Amino acid sequence: MSQKIIEKEYKKKIKLLNEYNRKYYNENAPIITDSEYDKFKKEIIDLEKKNNFLDLKNSPSKSIGFKPSKNFNKVKHKVPMLSLSNAFSEVDLKNFEKKILNFLSQINNSNISYTAEPKIDGISASLIYINGKLKTGLSRGDGKEGEDITSNLVTIKDIPKIILSKDFPEKIDIRGEVFIQNSDFENLKEKFANPRNAASGSLRQKNPADTKKIPLKFIAYTFGFEEGLKVNNQYDYLKKLSEWGFKTNPLNKLIVGIDKLLKNYNEVEKKRASLDFDIDGIVYKVNDFRLQKRLGFVANAPRWAIAHKFSSNKAISEIVDIDIQIGRTGALTPVAKIKPVNIGGVLVSNATLHNEDEINRKDIRVGDTATIERAGDVIPHILSVDTKKRNKNSKKFIFPKNCPSCGSKTIKEFNIITKKKDAVRRCSSEGYDCDKISIEKLKHFVSKEALNIDGFGKKIVESFWKLNLIKFPQDIFKLNFKKIEKLEGWGKLSVENLKYSINEKKRISFERFIYSLGIRHIGLENAKLLSKYFGKFSNFYDLSQNNKFSDLLNIDGIGETQVNSIKNFFSNKMNLIVLNELEKILFIDSTTNIRKKGLLSDKTFLVTGKLDGISRAEIKSLIEENSGTTVSSVSKKLNYLIVGDKPTKRKVFTAKELKIKIIDQVQFLKMLNKTS
Ligand code: IVH
Description:
With 676 residues, this protein is of the alpha+beta class.
């Protein structure tokens, strides 16, 4: 049978299965028996196993049930469920501790202790207990808002429903991982691709009886909000969890120093294959809660924790071709197309080559035999090529000097910080003049952290682009739905859903809006800083008239690189048209309206000189937590200059000239009602 026929057959089967699901779950009127259903499902999975090009999102190997997310109520997490940053090497780990020590302004590293907790690869859940009773169970969702899956979670034996211990907090949100043991997965192999899919699918079943059939386990490891928790470090918390009746990871440890963390990492990695649950690394958390509190968060991960991932799996394959992909910021990324090879259960056919310099350094050529590495969730990459196996006729790979999409020259920029040329080559055309860049800009615009338009994924951007339905972000709000309705794979209902999701996202916070523009070097954090500085859209737009770009250097955290990039953005006429059009369509909330009224609100600060036992970064977080702002130079806009040891004389002098209040560390902490 040809690939096409198999594919057609496969799609037909999945469509039919979805119809069975719809009848069963939505109408409560199954049209086939359970065993017929199971047999049919297995047919699809077998077909996938035999033909690895079959890989539909709605395949039963990836999901079970029918659009379960619509079945659950969405609930906001009182404390967001964050993610963790990753460390892949000893260097990453040392940097992690260095940053902590810098932040805490601590030179001696001998006394930071960490918990080392094997990271189970499952699905996280939040369990809310009030007066010892399990009230609500939520999925992680997008971290801010989860689904109420209480009735499914209560079917898990490991989850205590009532806790009578005297020292159990009155209110607490206990968090941990739901997973399936490998031995239990053996019996479910036919139905799911891997244990993680099995856990996620069964947790979100509409009917709890279906969840109950799957032997799910739960391990607890952290908490969200709490009232009445009487421990002050993570290790004691883990001990308490098990006293209260929760399962905790038997391999959890308390460890001091990076060297010992590495020793433990190697020991656990050796045990990994013999464990009955999948782990993909070890989570390290600063043990002391007081330090955790001081360290706080950056973007959506804590500064006090990191996931040390296990080294990947490697495989050898042949490089069939080298493709050049063009990113949103014009960067040309070479990608090796390789003969498909299975690495750790995943079929890999692409591997990133990073950039031009990397290809030259490793002398990677088409036709080479290469070692490919897949570490954690990151894109596989080429480790090395075997030059001995190389064909005599093989030729060095020549990196394109013109953009493969628009033909513009490609350039390597000079980096003002490293004082070197970038390793990355870029398309020199600006924004929307290059088709590939435009498509990537649109993908960014609709992405999760930007507009977050439900159901408007990368594939849709590409197909709408090809059909000339969208070219600029504003086109998304002027779609020809009549035309879309007639396209293959679309119908009345799906078009209605799309219309709804787009309309729903017309109201947007100013910071998200700035981020969505995809200005180079303006990520989430910088977008936040800019939105605070400008307050509202019109002030930001005014940059195109007043050219006050250098003023932006006053924003702490914004440097020359960012300012140049913003300047570039505003110098492009098309970008201004896009801004104008979007402003007409969207409701961009001003930042000032939602600003908190903290102790330091409307006050600006600058630190000069070394402080005692508190780092710059910590002071900055303290200021921001209390609604103040930090600036990077002394100007009329500055309210307080905080002076430490050996301050910059010029700063103190100018501050005196401008009659700015000069305070020391103690006076500053007093403003926050803190004494030390
Ligand atoms: S702590 C801010 N501890 O890893 C703290 N997470 O990448 C984040 N995970 O969503 C959670 N084992 O699903 C924590 N011992 C452990 C963990 C763990 C597994 C998962 C969890 C989380 C993800 C973060």
